[in-house]
Design brief:
The protein has about 450 residues and is an alpha+beta fold. About 25% of the residues lie in helices and about 25% in strands. The protein is built from nine helices and 19 strands. The strands form five sheets. Strands 9, 12, 15, 16, 17, 18 and 19 form a seven-stranded mixed β-sheet that branches. Strands 1-8-6-3 form a four-stranded antiparallel β-sheet, covered by helices on one side. It has a four-stranded antiparallel β-sheet with strand order 5-4-2-7, with no helix packed on it. α7 packs across α8 and α7 crosses α9. It is globular, with a radius of gyration of 26 Å.
Length: about 450
């Protein structure tokens, strides 16, 4: 019988693994080509995976909530749809609580000609992050099958593994982290394991419920955000600078062109394209702010990829990335900004749309807040907050003396990683950004 292997697809340049959220089929189901088989998650983006063939589902090889490397076989479909599924009850049990398949190298995804069979690798139970009913790990940290396989082969014990710093989402340990640790293992042992960051402080607080209190479980995205924020505060010593900018020219320009722009482009013109353009110019002048930290090394990013926070109806937020922001015209920035924002709100972002950011902007002005002190989006070293634009009286110098006039003012704040960005660099970058916005050409054509 012609069997077709469904593999975990590669949905982005930097995507090496994905989590199975929900199966929409079970063994024995008849499906048509393009029917949705399952939903998967990569970082904060959820995607539906359709079937490339029609036939009968023979096997489901991974459970829901399993983290699967790109290229691993996750299901088998008989394309003729003929014949009965043998041991359907056994296969159904696999979809509930499967054995862990031998992990493949995610950097070399391939589609085997024959279905891969689940097999149990020799991994210490303490390393296994399992579903309910299976052995519990020694800590609440997640380790992928590939990481656990390397740890077993290299005799890395549980305490060592828990102490390895993770560079993945939410501090998750990746293959590269383990390999880097192994390189330095003989030179300097890892310090004794400390209590996980998220167990410090808040976990020690005793919460007593009172009548009328409501308990709301965090959804998957909120958990990711929470872990990432705690990790960032633990990683980077945050410092914040503030600048007030007179953006009267920008405000008057937008008021002048927004109606024509809407008619021509079918897009509302906000202030954000100008913020993004000015930020990209300032980052090009001060590359030390467009950087990341790797141990005692500073990585100066060649590309300027600016993420911007988008609030979702669910109450969560997501950060799409405007790639090559310094290479785009103001019109190009506005169009791409609109596309990414709409995709975020419609839950149709691709994994690449949220990957590779080198700097982030959070627009507090959207909610008429005057400013904010956002948390750095790791592994970046700085994040900008743009406040609400308000009319204020201000002293203006003229050839005949000082006068008081109504001006459009806003507060810009920059939170930065004081390990590599000091007050001089952070201050000069923020002041330059303010100057660029103040110098906006009121006669500019878009």
């Amino acid at each position: 019988m012609p069997d077709f292997n469904i593999v975990m697809p590669k949905l982005g340049e930097s995507v090496q693994e994905a989590t199975i959220i929900r199966w929409l089929v079970k063994p024995g189901d008849m499906i048509q080509e393009d029917d949705v088989l399952l939903e998967i998650a990569t970082d904060k983006v959820d995607s539906e995976i359709p079937s490339p063939v029609a036939g009968k589902v023979l096997k489901v090889l991974f459970a829901e909530n399993a983290l699967v490397p790109v290229g691993d076989v996750i299901a088998v479909i008989n394309t003729e749809g003929a014949g009965e599924v043998s041991n359907v009850s056994e296969v159904s049990e696999v979809s509930e609580a499967p054995e862990i398949p031998q992990p493949s190298q995610p950097s070399q995804p391939s589609q085997p000609s024959q279905p891969s069979q689940p097999s149990q690798p020799s991994i210490p139970p303490a390393f296994v992050k399992t579903t309910a009913g299976e052995a519990q790990p020694s800590s609440d940290r997640f380790y992928s099958p590939l990481v656990m396989s390397i740890a077993t082969k290299e005799n890395i014990n549980g305490e060592e593994l828990d102490a390895i710093p993770g560079t993945g989402t939410g501090g998750r340990v990746r293959k590269q982290d383990v390999l880097k640790y192994l390189e330095n293992r003989t030179k300097q042992p890892v310090a004794k394991k400390q209590e996980p960051v998220k167990n410090q402080g808040a976990a020690k607080v005793s919460i007593s419920l009172q009548p009328g209190d409501e308990i709301v479980e965090m959804d998957r995205m909120r958990k990711l955000i929470a872990d990432h924020m705690v990790m960032s505060k633990h990683t980077s010593p945050h410092v914040t600078n503030f600048v007030e900018a007179d953006v009267t020219n920008l405000a008057l320009w937008r008021e002048k062109v927004k109606e024509d722009f809407l008619k021509r482009e079918k897009i509302k013109l906000t202030f954000m394209p100008a913020f993004l353009e000015a930020t990209a110019k300032a980052l090009r002048e001060y590359p030390g702010v467009n950087a990341s930290v790797d141990g005692d090394k500073i990585i100066l990013r060649k590309n300027i990829n600016i993420g911007f926070a988008v609030a979702l109806k669910s109450g969560n937020l997501i950060v799409p990335v405007l790639r090559g922001a310094d290479q785009k015209s103001l019109l190009g920035v506005a169009v791409e900004l609109h596309r990414l924002t709409e995709a975020a709100r419609n839950n149709s972002l691709s994994p690449d749309d949220v990957q590779g950011g080198t700097f982030t902007i959070s627009n507090f002005g959207t909610f008429r807040n005057i400013t904010g002190t956002p948390i750095i989006n790791q592994p970046q070293v700085a994040i900008l907050a743009t406040g609400n634009i308000e009319k204020k009286p201000a002293v203006i110098e003229t050839p005949t003396g000082d006068v008081i006039a109504i001006r459009h003012k806003m507060i810009l704040s920059l939170s930065y990683d004081h390990r590599v960005v000091d007050g001089a660099l952070g201050g000069m970058f923020l002041r330059r950004l303010g100057d660029l916005l103040e110098e906006f050409d009121i006669n500019r054509v878009i």
